[in-house]
Amino acid sequence: MLPSTYEDAASAEKKRVKVQSVRNEMSRYLKETIAEMNRARPARGSSSGNGNNDNDGGEAEDTSAFLSKIRSSGEAVSTDDLVRVAHIFEDDLTLDNLSRPQLVSICRFMGVNAFGTDRYLRYQITNRMRYIRADDKMISAEGIDSLSVPELQSACQSRGIRTIGESPARMREELAQWIELHLGRNIPSTLLILSRIIAAGEPISQQQQAQGRGQPQFNAEALQATINSLPDNLVNEATLRLAE
Fold first, then answer.
1. 161 touches 16 (CB < 8 A)
2. Which residue of 135, 161, 207, 222 pairs with 198 in a disulfide if CB–CB is 3.0 to 4.6 A?
């Protein structure tokens, strides 16, 4: 008979493979949903209505003009610019405006029950996000190196961080990056999860594999695709909140 420790390790690995398979499926599903939404969405103008008043506006007008530009043209922008505007899409506002397919994708990606009304899904996601934020603060205070390998794998899985085929050192780097973006740069967890869903189905290139021992690369393209996929009414509400 196999030792129980071997069975436990094999069972845990099998579970991680299954989770990654579900996440790849959700990535494809969300991308297809976003493509359908973009086809149904009226063409946006190349600039916002207040785009000519950048000097008179302030942060709200600048942000509105920037979002209008990247969402209409799809032009790649710097990571710093993306991070600068991402904080306005607060979790409560974003969840209230996401479509059901997006809510279901988040639930399944995070291992949350995806059955129920939209309100119930939002409630479950909100609770999970609150737990992750509290956990991030605790890990930040105690240090990532204090986590055992099983604890590290669990923390990474709950945040959509790849664990299959990744060394503990690599997972610690990815978790450290998540915490820096979430707590240090104030990127809402909903945006981080949505961007990870979009990036989950992307194959790992040979270059990325070769860089596996280096610093993790922030997927700015996935974050921009996430921002571009957000409903127009969400973008308008977030910008209005900024102006208040």
1. no
2. 222
